[in-house]
Design goal:
The structure holds two protein chains of two kinds.
Chain A: H1 7-10, H2 14-23, H3 48-62, H4 69-98, H5 113-126, H6 131-139, H7 141-162, H8 189-211, H9 220-246, H10 249-275, H11 296-319
Helix pairs in contact in A: 5-6, 6-7, 7-10, 7-11, 8-9, 9-11, 10-11
Chain B: H1 2-6, H2 8-26, H3 30-52, H4 76-106, H5 111-121
Helix pairs in contact in B: 2-3, 3-4
The chains are: A mainly alpha, B mainly alpha.
Chain lengths: 323, 123
Amino acid sequence: MSKLKPQKEYEKTRSFRFQRWLGGSRDPYVGQIEMQPQTPMEMPELTIQERLRDSQAVRDKVYDIENNKKLNLFRRIYVLAAIVYCAGLAVILLAMVASLPPTGEANRPVNNEVSARYIENGLQETGAVNIVTGMILDYRAFDTFGESNVLFAATTTVLILLHMKKKKNKEGKVEEIESDRLLEPKQDAILQASATVLVPIIILFGIYVILNGHLSPGGGFSGGAIIGAGLILYLSAFGFEKAKKLFTEKLYKGVSFTALTTYCLAKSYSFFTGANHLESHIPLGTPGAILSSGLILLLNICVGMVVACTMYTFYVMFRKGDF
Amino acid sequence: MENLFRNYGEAIAMILFIIGFANLLLHKNLIKKIIGLNIMDSAIYLFLAEKGYIAGRGVPIVVDGVQSVEAYINPIPSGLVLTGIVVSVSVSALMLSLTIRLYRRYHTLDLDEISTLLKKEGV
């Protein structure tokens, strides 16, 4: 049995620092870098009439064309210049298309030795029957890793921009934020009945598309989008109370972090052994079987999880601003 | 000129691109500007897909062990389109969330009104 360390001794260990970093209880930048002081914007509480009057005043000022000859002239010149610019660009681009080699012919310069190499050696080198999947998840896997990280960064930014803190009133109850959402139909019987049938089928189909990514059209991105659509349908039919049991912010963090880390480690191993001419010990399997093509299946699952979580989080953030 | 009609897919892609660009320039509403940018994205996907197409050949999925170049279309543009779609989704989400923040602050989507209000605040 291990002994429990006293608190002071524990604070010196590496695991304490790791826990602190994971929980985010201490901000290392506070007091270390110079920050611009920010004052919170104070918005006067206006009634609807006042707000309408204010916006009407702004509109009158901006679109006061009759009394502002300069503005009128500028508007006309701007529209004219935009149309002339677009027309000129159209002429240039269509002339470019007219001088391109004809579509559909095999001897165009696009169809060079790179695509020939992918088609002729792709199956032996990656093990994937679907050549496009073999290309994006094996030859150019770091590119796809970058894409997953772009999605993750976009979700993080949307979370920062649209996250709304719940207001608590005096009794400690969470106030419903006043918005159009209150007028939405709740507990719609037709929607709930059809969602009960459709949501499992949609999610199963998404899983099928992800798992067959190296055998048939599809893969992590399309399958993840299908699963995200199923989750969104479930949320629309049964409301936030039930969806919260299934999908929380903690789950989003965990799934994204796990998927991206797994992808990074698996592909780093593969690239490391490949660059140093080592044996990677990952069997390619028989082409056409589900468990084949090395790491591609694992990478497809990782990408699918990231995309599904991203789609659902976008929807939740745009609709409510909170999980 | 004859070549333009043979490359009709690419020509349509370029016309779509111009439509999206004109949307971006001429509309004052921020949401409509974002729609224009998305039309431009779609035009680029159509252009790339047309570039990879070869008449009379199949999708790049190996069937019956046939692995000659003569059997399949070019797989590289398909991969590029996939990359483009993912980046476009991220960029659209980012722009829409910024638009929502602007609307919460200024209660309007019109770009001219927003800039007038900004001038009034002295930014």
